[in-house]
Amino acid sequence: MNFDLSNAEIEDFEMNPLDYNPADYPTASDVIEGILTRQADAPVSLTPKELSVNGRVAADKMEKYLASKSNSSSALKQVLKNPASYFFYMNDRENFKEKEKSHFELGTFCHQAFLEPHLFDLVVVEPEANRASIEGCNEMVSFWENLIFSKYKYQGVADKKLNEAMEHVDAAKLDVKKLAGMKYYIDCLKEVSGHTAIKSQHKAIIDVIKRNYYMYGGGIIPMILKGAQVEHSFYGKDPSTGIDVRVRPDAFNIAENIGVNAVISFKTTSAEDMGKFVYDSAKYKYELSEGMYQEVMSEVTGRNFNVTIMVVLQTVAPFLPAVFIWSGENLANGKYKYHYALDTIAECKRTGLYPGFESLAESGNYGIIELNQPEWAAKLLQPIDLED
């Protein structure tokens, strides 16, 4: 592996045409036909054990997935910058991570709701009461207790839910008659209620998004997701390099449900048009991620995952969704970058060297890089008229 890589070689790979065969990837019309012809069939789900053929599939928590030392697509994207960035990502980045935000994130909620649409109906606007006062906390307690009672009374578990919340308070050794105990009790009531508390402006947005979810393309999004499985991690080993790899798609569906084995990705965007989103997809190298998903999932399951459907949602007005099917050529390009990154890692492990920006220098230049500005910087200056 030659580490004297030019910027063009790193950012703009020339895809080997032998790696791309259009016949390997179903067309959009093939996928649509498969989806429509199987809508009347009962959905089929496969267990992690049934999916685990040449690796391991697990319905595990995100925290466990992230703790794995296997290589993810995020790690491999660092390799395309330079091997030193990859080494930092794998070994040092935890020391520099920012604390997670705790407030409501519209994009995060919609990500979950598109994959589990019943969540659209589990949002509630809570009172704008002052939690710094006993009076405000009493108002919040009454709101959440009434919501739980009205929701669960016909199931006969309302009292059980309320007792569960109070047990959490007792376990924390807090007095529910005091302010700290009341605040904690409110949080416990929210947790056992199964609802997500949001502000009124978010409720209006979510109502629009829910409507668009069911109306888009004559209802194609729920059809694509019929029987789809979520929260599954795929752990495998690249056959060529022996490097451990992992992927966790937003969702996936199988041929028994929609006619093809498909990776389903969900993205949010603040772009006002989809042209900007497509530009961003190249900027952030989504093709590497999507190509890696197909490669790893196909290897681990023994199934041919050769379709990627991407559901995109605007998080700005008018909050419209869009559904893309990735072209075979773009996926082949992503797979090429995926394998290029793995080959680079294998060479780094062999040599023990993880060069940074010095890899951009000519061989023998001791990391000194010749700076060449882009062509637009050489344009002639425009004449300036100084006369009145």
Structure description:
This protein is an alpha+beta fold and 388 residues long. The protein is built from 16 helices and ten strands. The strands form three sheets. It has a five-stranded mixed beta sheet with strand order 4-7-8-9-10. The chain has a three-stranded antiparallel beta sheet with strand order 1-5-6. Strands 2-3 form a two-stranded parallel ribbon. Helix 5 (73-81) packs across helix 15, helix 8 packs antiparallel against helix 9 (158-171) and helix 9 (158-171) packs across helix 10.
Key features of this structure:
five-stranded mixed beta sheet, alpha+beta, 10 strands, 16 helices, 388 residues
Beta-strand fraction estimate: 5-15%
Oligomerization:
single chain
Characterize the overall form.
Answer: globular
The value of Rg in angstroms is 26 Å
Mean pLDDT: 90
Topology pattern, helix = H, strand = E = HHHEHHHHEHHHEHHEEEEHEHHEEH
- Lateral arrangement of strands in the main beta sheet: 4-7-8-9-10
Secondary structure tally, helices: 16
Given as residue ranges, the uncertain stretches (5+ residues, pLDDT < 50) are 4-13
The tally of beta strands, per DSSP, is 10
Q: Note the main sheet.
A: 5 strands, mixed
Percent in helix: 40-55%
Structural class: alpha+beta
Distance between the termini: 63 Å
